[in-house]
From TrEMBL:
This is Metallophosphoesterase. Residues 36-67 are annotated as: Disordered. Residues 76-294 form the Calcineurin-like phosphoesterase domain. Keywords: Signal.
Length: 376
């Protein structure tokens, strides 16, 4: 059945070759794209007045028992990404479940997810099967995070609700509908302090502890022009510019870092232009998923955090000889100096990854990015 599904998907990918956005196809799960489906503007609820404060106790260096315990910054984020398994899966591998159990012990202010929370992007899945995946996500991921009263920011991945389209029609309409239905259900409140939720859950902005977050729909390689205008307006806004820090997050990276992800469609089109947009508005970091390989980098004035994978399919970096791994990152932020400190755990060994073992730079197909600690 899995083979049949994959064959169908690949055929579908060929059929939509002229569609909007580059096709992202590779790995255990094939990948694909589309164009934004803006949410109903009437649904906009600007400035959700609810404060997004976690209620967990604070300690100087909180961490799960037995794990390295970094000193907490003014703000702490736990970053997870690419959680899914095989198409249609309603369950998660043990490393994902273990990470979710660990999350409250790190005492974060915010949990972020780089997308691919479920395993869709397969039109042989029935709507009931897609809904069952989101129920599985809720049971194993979202409900425990809600129970811990932690805000959950996320970006939509190609397997959650690919934005690809052909002839003006969404290629994965059932996925898009399911993601809307799930996230617009008040029972699934993400506990975010929204600034602009008109495009939620596809693109939106929120603040957390004086940091401005912009999430866009990078489930395909093309950010549509209307969403780019929205992003620029959002980043130029008073809410963004008066914040101590700005962070953007999208599923596809600007520059590929992993083998099998270096083909067009697997990274954003016109990356340099998008980077220039972020630099213009002093965005500190762009966080992405999709590549299934952890790599903290910088290019120009922008930091790039490739979140790595927590679920199935770790990948090799384009350079170096590091064994592929599954990761969770704790990001501690010092607001006054805009310093971000990453503690990234290998979720198979529970050891902290030594940044110096990562390649000093990676030559992505669209430009070289440099490890974040290496000055150029
Ligand atoms: Fe992906």
């Amino acid at each position: 059945m899995a083979i049949k599904r994959r064959q169908l998907l690949i055929l579908g990918g060929l059929a939509i070759g002229g569609g909007v956005g580059g096709a992202a196809v590779s790995g255990i799960l094939s990948r694909k794209p589309e164009a934004i489906t803006p949410a109903d503007p009437k649904a906009t609820t600007a400035n959700n007045p609810k404060p997004a404060k976690s209620t967990v106790a604070r300690s100087p260096n909180p961490a799960p028992k037995g794990l390295y315990a970094p000193a907490r910054g003014d703000v702490r984020i736990v970053l997870i990404s690419d959680l899914n398994s095989a198409y249609g899966s309603t369950d998660y591998i043990d490393q994902v479940k273990q990470a979710i159990v660990f999350v409250p012990a790190w005492e974060p202010d915010l949990v972020l997810c780089g997308g691919d929370m479920v395993a869709g992007q397969d039109n042989s899945l029935k709507p009931s099967e897609i809904e069952a995946m989101w129920q599985g996500f809720d049971k194993h991921i979202a409900a425990p995070i809600r129970k811990a009263k932690l805000p959950f920011g996320f970006t939509i991945g190609n397997h959650d609700a690919s934005g690809s389209s052909f002839g003006g029609k969404s290629t994965f309409e059932n996925d898009r509908n399911a993601v809307l239905k799930y996230w617009q259900d008040p029972k699934h409140d993400a506990n975010l302090n929204f600034v602009d939720r008109a495009g939620f859950p596809f693109y939106y902005t929120f603040t957390q502890n004086d940091i401005f977050f912009l999430t866009w729909d990078a489930s395909t390689s093309e950010i549509p022009s209307d969403q780019l205008k929205w992003a620029e307006k959002s980043l130029a806004s008073e809410a963004a510019q008066k914040a101590k820090l700005r962070i953007a997050i999208g599923h596809l990276p600007l520059y590929a870092v992993a083998k099998g992800r270096e083909t067009p469609g697997n990274y954003l089109d016109d990356a340099d232009r998008l980077r220039a947009l972020f630099e213009k508005y002093n965005v500190h970091t762009y966080i992405s998923g999709h590549d299934h390989a952890y790599y903290p980098a910088h290019k120009g004035k922008l930091e790039l955090l490739n979140a790595g994978v927590l679920g199935d399919g770790p990948r090799r970096l384009l350079s170096g000889d590091i064994t592929p791994n599954r990761t969770v990152s704790v990001i501690d932020i010092k607001l006054e100096t805009a310093e971000t400190i990453y503690t990234t755990y290998d979720m198979d060994t529970l050891k902290v990854i030594d940044q110096s073992t990562l390649p000093r730079y990676i030559d992505a197909p669209n430009g070289r990015i440099t490890r974040r600690d290496i000055k150029i």
